[in-house]
Design brief:
Blueprint lengths: L15 E2 L1 H8 L3 H10 L7 E3 L2 E5 H9 L4
Length: 69
C-alpha cells in the first residue's frame, strides 16, 4: 500500500519515493511510471537503488509545477 506523501510541504519529506507513491502523487498508475523508466521516454527519470526504482521528490514537484525538464 502506498505511503501518503504530500509534495507541497518540504518538511520531513524523503529525497526519493517509491513508484507507487510517485504514481499516486501524479495521479497515474504505477505501471505508467515503470513504462517511463523502461522506455526512457517519460517526463522524469527514476534513480535505481539496489535495482529498484525510486523517484526524486524534486523531479515530481517540478513536474507538478509544470517546470519539468
Amino acid at each position: 500500500m502506498p505511503m501518503a506523501v504530500s509534495l507541497t510541504s518540504s518538511t520531513d519529506l524523503p529525497e526519493v519515493v517509491t513508484t507507487e507513491d510517485a504514481a499516486a502523487a501524479l495521479n497515474r498508475k504505477p505501471q505508467t511510471l515503470r513504462k517511463w523508466a523502461c522506455l526512457e521516454n517519460g517526463p522524469i527519470r527514476p534513480v535505481r537503488i539496489n535495482g529498484r526504482l525510486a523517484w526524486r521528490v524534486s523531479d515530481l514537484r517540478a513536474l507538478l509545477e509544470g517546470s519539468a525538464k
